[in-house]
Amino acid sequence: MELERQGALPAARPRRQVWTNGNFLALWLASACTSMAFSVYLLSESWFVVQRLDRESWIGIVMAATTVPRVLLMPFAGVLADRMRRSVLLFFSNGIRAVLIMLLVVLVFERSLSIWGLLGFALAFGALDGFYWPANGSMLPNIIDKDQLARGNSILQTTNQLCFLLGPALGGYLLKFISFEAAFAASSLFLFAAAAAVRLVRDDGSADAAERPPFFRQWKDGIAYIRSFRYLVVLMGVSMVVNLLFAGPLNAGLPVLVNRSLNGDVLALSYMEISIAVGMMAGSSIAGILNLKRRRALIALALIALLGVATALLSGIAAVWQGVGLMFAIGLFVAFSNNLTSTLIQQMVERDMMGRVQGVLSTASMGLVPVSYAIVSVLLSAGASISAVLLASGIGLFVYVLFILAAVKVVRSAG
Questions:
Q1: Per the structure, how many domains does the chain have?
Q2: N or C terminus of the chain: which is more exposed, having fewer CB within 10 Å?
Q3: Is 111 left (phi over 0), alpha (psi -120 to 50) or beta?
């Protein structure tokens, strides 16, 4: 497969190691703070629905409300990421979300936040998140050399997973011993810090306004560019099915699994979320150390098959320690697979197309996530056990990946 095209690289810039690159360090700090904020917020939001509002069956709907606007906006946000400074998009996305969560804190404090109000905040949070991911995913190739992408991705992902480890621990402590208000406020403060840090990043500026094609022409060019890479087309399809079978059952189901099947409290939930973060740290670190150069697409998909096995096994746990072990394995498989896929895409795609590619790929990968959340909510409302949902999704994921590995040649040869 062709990994580079003529004109893909701009004028050469001085080679710098990632740890001496000020732009990378600023992005590293901003990403870490965003991950802390996100992990604390999601834990607080899900436990607020389950405990304060006593609306277990609504947890999938709340998560879907976060996802729908993100999915709808990401293709167009990807065009914006190619038209303007990505650091500016990240600044406004994090800064406005920080303000929104502070308003949420006020409503929680006054005991006036209903499930409908929380849905409204989820929609706004998701819309702003739609501008964050294409800009964040396409910035790294702009600020470090191509041969350092695997290392840069490994450092960012390992640090982010460390923050996803610390975030649930901090969130669980604040929820258990202080209040929902304190947990949400901590998330807001981390987002303010991320917004400040990303302003230090000096990424490449956009082309002059007079030289830029019209907005929708750039969007169409991005679609045509993706269609020219068979691997990217296959990756979009695989991502859609994987997230349909995995995202809802695990993310929406975990709080219910802890509350119903294990009779645990928020600390048990935080232990399991900490465990998946440790696993993701391990997966990102291993990927960075090995720095694989061949068969990356094949290995990434094989790891997703193992993810299906671990999800199916999660359905049968009877103790928190069993869940902790399986969540570690799930985190390892996800992070290792993501690192391989991200590095391959960043090396394959032209830099001035990166925002549009990331936007479309992110939309494809998350497009069915709201459906996945909604299905989980419907099944729980109909009386299905979360264990049955997890078992069916894990088996379905494993069988689907085996089919793709056997039937699609490009996956076995790419990268």
A1: 1
A2: N
A3: left
CATH code assigned at 145: 1.20.1250.20
Does the residue 30 lie in any domain?
Answer: yes
Reported as type and span, the H/E element at residue 361 is helix 354-366
Least confident span in 149-153, 194-198, 208-212, 300-304: 208-212
Q: Which residues contact 104 (CB under 8 A, 6 or more apart)?
A: 113, 118, 121, 184
Residue 75 lies in a domain: yes
Q: Which residue has the higher pLDDT, 145 or 92?
A: 92
**Where is pLDDT greater, at 252 or 278?**
278
Residue range of the domain that includes 77: 20-203+213-413
**pLDDT for residue 281:** 79
Q: Are residues 62 and 83 in contact, defined by beta-carbon separation less than 8 angstroms?
A: no
Tell me whether residue 255 is in a domain: yes
Q: How far apart are CA 316 and CA 388, in angstroms?
A: 9
H/E element holding 323?
helix 320-348
User: Taking the alpha carbons of 206, 211, 215, 216 in that order, is the dihedral positive or negative?
Assistant: negative
pTM exceeding the 0.70 threshold for the entire prediction = no
Does residue 3 form part of some domain? no
Q: Which burial class, exposed, middle or buried, applies to 277 when counting CB atoms under 10 A from its CB (0-12, 13-18, 19+)?
A: buried
Residue 222 to residues 80, 215, 261, 367: CA-CA distances in angstroms?
12, 11, 46, 18
The CA-CA-CA angle for residues 393, 331, 139, to 5°, reads 110
Q: Please tell me what DSSP assigns to residue 49.
A: I
| Degrees, nearest 5: CA angle 367-347-339 | 60
**383: exposed, middle or buried (Cβ count in 10 Å: 0-12, 13-18, 19+):** exposed
pLDDT at 206 over 90: no
Q: What is the pLDDT of residue 7?
A: 39
Q: Give the number of residues written for the chain.
A: 415
Task: Say if residues 413 and 4 touch (Cβ distance below 8 Å).
Answer: no
**Which of the 8 DSSP states describes residue 415?**
-
Q: For residues 365 and 359, what is the distance between their CA atoms, to the nearest angstrom?
A: 10
- What confidence tier does 1 reach under pLDDT thresholds 50, 70, 90? very low
Decide if pLDDT at 329 tops 90. yes
How many whole angstroms separate alpha carbon 171 and alpha carbon 187?
A: 9
Q: Which of 100-114, 191-205, 280-294, 394-408 has the lowest mean pLDDT?
A: 280-294
CA distance 360 to 225: 11
Query: In this structure, what token pair is assigned to residue 96?
Result: 């406005």
